[in-house]
Amino acid sequence: MKVILQQDVKGQGKRGQMIEVSDGYARNFLLPRKLAQEATADNINTMRMNDKATQERQAKERAEAMELSKKMKTFTLIVNAKGGGAGRLFGSVTNTEISEALEKQEGIKLDKRKIVLDEPIKATGAYTVRCKLGYEITGDLTVEVKEA
Q1: Which of 7, 13, 96, 115 has its Cβ near the most Cβ atoms within 10 Å?
Q2: Which residues are CB-contacts of 94 (< 8 A; sequence separation ≥ 6)?
């Protein structure tokens, strides 16, 4: 019997796949637990429509990430931090502060976990910070730290 998996099933396949299983396994295990549905013409058509919609959404998100990556190269983000003089800061500038400044200055909402700092920023000056934008796309952001 052909079924379309509704969830990942260990040893069988991933969600959205159409697989061939024995009739008893489908009737007694997969179908009652809502792990799969029978592969009727209607369900197959729905599966294909969902796959197409998912691919279009991913292509759109990838294009937005590329656009954001290009935009991030064009501007310099200014972060003000408390300093103790001579270019040294009290504490360090974190990815949370960079994320908040990015949203405030440029209107770009980026999760703090997507901002990668190789080492903490503990002095004033200009730094290049890598941002993970998804779909293996990264953008370099220039951050200028000023003493407040």
Answers
A1: 115
A2: 112, 117, 120
List pLDDT tens digits, range 20-40. Answer: 999 999 999 999 999 999 999
**Phi, psi (deg, nearest 5) at residue 123:** -140, 160
pLDDT in tens, 90-136: 888 888 889 898 889 888 888 889 888 888 888 888 999 988 888 88
On whether the CB atoms of residues 120 and 132 are closer than 8 A, the answer is no
**How many other C-beta atoms are found inside a 10 Å radius of the C-beta of residue 86?**
8
Task: Identify whether the C-beta of residue 4 lies closer than 8 Å to the C-beta of residue 12.
Answer: no
**CA–CA distance, 82 with 55 (Å, rounded to integer):** 46
SS3 141: strand
